[in-house]
Write a structure and sequence with these properties.
Elements: H1 12-24, H2 27-37, H3 43-52, H4 56-80, H5 84-112, H6 131-149, H7 156-175
């Protein structure tokens, strides 16, 4: 899918750079920035924003959206449990996830001095429909998020929270084997 920026009044250098960026970024990412700056005609600012990537707040909020989706999926497993051990395990995981999600959100707001406003936390759901693959996917998501914030000194407490989450998920993978 090619973006329709050729009709914009932008420099040849910006057009060339956007063509290169089309190879690295999704059309939605490019289109969002172009649309936002279309009135100002300062596309160089858009190009810089794309190259810098999402802000720390956006990265953390995206992870919180995923956590919320996983927590809802765990609720579904909880209601669909066929054994008491599965019912209890998913109940405990939901509680852990809620607590960790809250800690990360409050940590983010303390670090960045911003508030999460109503309507910002739209859950992102996993496609997994079984507990084990869901837990493995959440571990992978958590480790990916952790790697994305490791260089941010102010996020050291959040990294500890993420380590705790991975520990709880690994333990749940083990407990899930008990039928």
């Amino acid at each position: 899918m090619k973006l329709d920026y050729m009709n914009k009044n932008i420099s040849v250098e910006d057009k060339k750079l956007l063509e290169e960026l089309e190879q690295k970024y999704s059309p939605d990412e490019l289109a969002a920035v172009i649309k936002e700056l279309s009135d100002s005609s300062n596309l160089s600012t858009a190009v810089v924003a794309i190259e810098e990537g999402p802000s720390l707040a956006e990265v953390i909020l995206d992870f919180l959206k995923k956590l919320e989706g996983y927590r809802i999926r765990l609720r579904e497993y909880h209601w669909n449990a066929e054994t008491m051990s599965m019912h209890t395990l998913t109940d405990n995981l939901m509680s852990d996830l809620l607590s960790i999600e809250d800690e990360i959100a409050e940590d983010m707001q303390g670090i960045l001095g911003i508030r999460i406003t109503p309507g910002q936390l739209i859950p992102v759901f996993t496609l997994s429909t079984e507990l084990e693959p869901t837990l493995k996917e959440l571990i992978k998501e958590t480790l990916t998020f952790k790697a994305s914030i490791e260089d941010e000194e102010q996020c050291s407490g959040m990294i500890s929270i993420l380590d705790d989450l991975v520990h709880k998920l690994n333990k749940a993978l083990y407990l899930e084997t008990f039928k």
